[in-house]
Amino acid sequence: MANDQDIHSKPAKSSEFSKFGSSGIRGVANTEITPQLALDFGLAIGSVYRDVVIGHDPRIAGEMIEHAVISGLLSAGCKVLKTGMVPTPTLALASKDCGCGIMVTASHNPARYIGIKVFKDGMSLNTGQQEEIEYLLENKNFTRADWKNTGGLGVMGTAVKDHSEIILKNTGSSDLKVVVDCGCGAASVITPYVLREMGCEVITLNSQPDGFFPGREPEPVDETLGVLKSTVKAAGADLGIAHDGDADRMMAVDNEGQFVSGDKMLAFFAVREAKKAIAVPVDTSRVVDDLLKGIKISRTKVGDVYVAETLKKIKGEFGGEPSGAWIFPKVSLCPDGIYAAARLVEIVENEGKFSELLGSIPEYPIKRYAFQCTDKKKAMIKIAEKLKGLGDINTLDGVRVDLDDGWILVRPSGTEPKIRITVESRDRCDELYKKAEDIVKGAIA
Ligand code: MG
């Protein structure tokens, strides 16, 4: 078992890491995600799209991978524009003016990871478009230009300015005091400036881009945001904002220094944005169903790509994931942590104290946990068999069992070697969680 963890002792398994999933390609830089793989990726994209905008987050391997992707694109004869270091939602917006957009990022994963996400018309590639790229990658079926038709490289210097302007056009002014923790990620170049432009007094934490993420882990969760929570309280701020490494996610801290859970944040936005329809993943709390009577709530597979695809289909006004990905289709179909931060500030400015606004949203006991698992497929077969014994199962994504007083969801992570458990129940959350945990532990042992 121990050897499986030591990826340095093994050659890169390009077949596994070249799998172009819902979040693109992701893995450890230079062992799993190599320049060779990135070159092929550029060739595959360049075989389909003729002009491409590309950017990267501050990760150490970002430029190495970006340059390899660019070589592939140029070899295929593409016209390529570089935005430099930008957040993912900024790059996604820039993709609206090009054939497609490529973001070199590993999102919220630890610093050693790197990855590639692709956008078209402001949203992630849909399943059909992903499969086309995956087919080309697997078969190395690339189109190469002859020597005189290889591509050209230029610069797009306005991506951050364009994104900021769209956000400011869609939000009002505010003189709130806000602490922003960019986690040393890509948000450092935009969120503090946008909020200051709105009129806020902004205190920044970890707002110098640094690919080692020395301030905290890039995933903005309760455990990683201790400094933000204490700073909000000490400064007497109205709220705190935290982003992941590429700023498609945003999480918040209230005026009392309390972390706001993803389920609560989702419901908080949903009740204000929903008019007819919203989309949420299958692991979302039943709170949204109870609060949004009369609104059509579509449940999707876990992953912001599926939420965005569904939102487009149902013409919904809002979509979100408890992980902190909030989609406001009037701005973009890419989760936009920066717009979400500005919108949150606008709401608190107009409606009153953040902690009091949150008080009106119930929170059902919910428990989430992830277990390391290298053979997810094998484990999930065993897990499905066991869960069938508890009640009716739904296999939209992983296996979900719905009971009268709660539900259990066990699903393989799309981006990491992990099996995730989510359990919600008003009265017996711990009991149901223990059941799920025993099943998962038994299957991965
Ligand atoms: Mg992200």
Structure report:
Helix 5 crosses helix 7 (159-169). Mean pLDDT is 93; it is low at 1-14. Strands 1, 2, 3, 4, 5, 6 and 7 form a 7-stranded mixed beta sheet that branches. A 5-stranded antiparallel beta sheet has the order 16-20-19-18-17, with helices on one face. It has a 4-stranded mixed beta sheet with strand order 9-8-10-11, with helices on both faces. The chain contains 16 helices and 20 strands. It folds into 3 domains: 25-157, 3-Layer(aba) Sandwich (Alpha-D-Glucose-1,6-Bisphosphate, Chain A, domain 3); 161-358, Alpha-D-Glucose-1,6-Bisphosphate, subunit A, domain 3 (Alpha-D-Glucose-1,6-Bisphosphate, Chain A, domain 3, 3-Layer(aba) Sandwich), CATH 3.40.120.10; 366-444, TATA-Binding Protein (2-Layer Sandwich). It has helices at residues 2-5, 14-17, 35-48, 62-75, 88-94, 127-139, 159-169, 191-198, 226-235, 262-273, 287-291, 304-314, 337-351, 354-359, 376-388, 429-444; strands at 25-28, 51-56, 79-85, 100-104, 113-120, 123-124, 152-155, 177-181, 201-205, 239-243, 250-253, 277-281, 296-300, 318-321, 325-327, 366-372, 393-394, 399-403, 406-412, 418-425. The chain is globular, with a radius of gyration of 21 Å. The protein is α/β, with parallel strands linked by helices and 445 residues long. The protein binds magnesium ion. Residues 88, 107-108, 244, 246, 248-249 line the site of magnesium ion.
